[in-house]
């Protein structure tokens, strides 16, 4: 028998509360759903979205998830969307549109069920893909996902838990196979028409071949090191008191900080104000605003701007 998976569950008192879990029907989310049952979670609401992309296959996913969840004694909430229509209207990519649609579903169920705690089934291999993709996009540092974080989904703040981040997908598969538990295979995961699939199916195997070793644990370790460094940075920024009473960045204080802390302070300021897609190039432009003769504003994603006025940085809508 395989050894128990080393999963950092919340304390027992937290397990007695109501929780949401996103379940696609695939290996990862089905494993997490069964692991929750085994760990003593009882008040679990399974959330499943039919993206409307795979016809009968998608409909079969819905039936499969409902049967499996109800057999465990969990309640189920399902919805269907027309993702291609959403993409045409918004101009979003397939990945972005799918993620936003799922987030809207989670937010809707969270409000209806008065539960803003959500489990997601991302594992160590997903973490490696995330780190590599963020590096390719020029993000600040080796950013990965966190085991516990707060995220805005559909206009509300959700408490997101990813207890499988330290677990390999192969170990989840072995755990499921040993117990003869079933899951659904999404055939679209094998098609290299979206970025995530190409990273998973092409980039990571190529890097492993070049390095002559499995690179996924190395990328996941880099994410943990980066997260630890960010804790130190946040402690230093708190001591430096970079924000004024109105929550604006104080330029006088900022100019006295080391370069690395300046970058982190601006990145944290943007993130805390709801700015997403923070690239390295964007941060460079924002840091350059600390120079008196530089531009007094920088365009931000979403049509907003970072402005400099009267010795302060602040964000204004476009």
Key traits:
6-stranded mixed β-sheet; Rossmann fold; 12 helices; 318 residues; 10 strands; alpha/beta; Uridine Diphospho-n-acetylenolpyruvylglucosamine Reductase, domain 3; 2 domains; 4-stranded antiparallel β-sheet
Q: Can you characterise this structure?
A:
The protein has 318 residues and is an alpha/beta fold. The chain has 2 domains: 12-188, Rossmann fold (3-Layer(aba) Sandwich); 241-317, Uridine Diphospho-n-acetylenolpyruvylglucosamine Reductase, domain 3 (2-Layer Sandwich). Helix content is 48%, strand content 16%. The protein is built from 12 helices and 10 strands. The protein has helices at residues 12-15, 27-38, 56-71, 83-90, 94-113, 124-136, 169-178, 195-211, 216-240, 251-255, 259-272, 280-288; strands at 19-22, 44-50, 75-80, 117-119, 148-153, 156-161, 249-250, 297-300, 304-309, 312-317. The strands form 2 sheets. A 6-stranded mixed sheet has the order 3-2-1-4-6-5. A hairpin with a 2-residue loop joins strand 9 and strand 10. Helix 6 crosses helix 9 and helix 11 (259-272) packs across helix 12. The N and C termini lie far apart (59 Å). The mean pLDDT is 91.
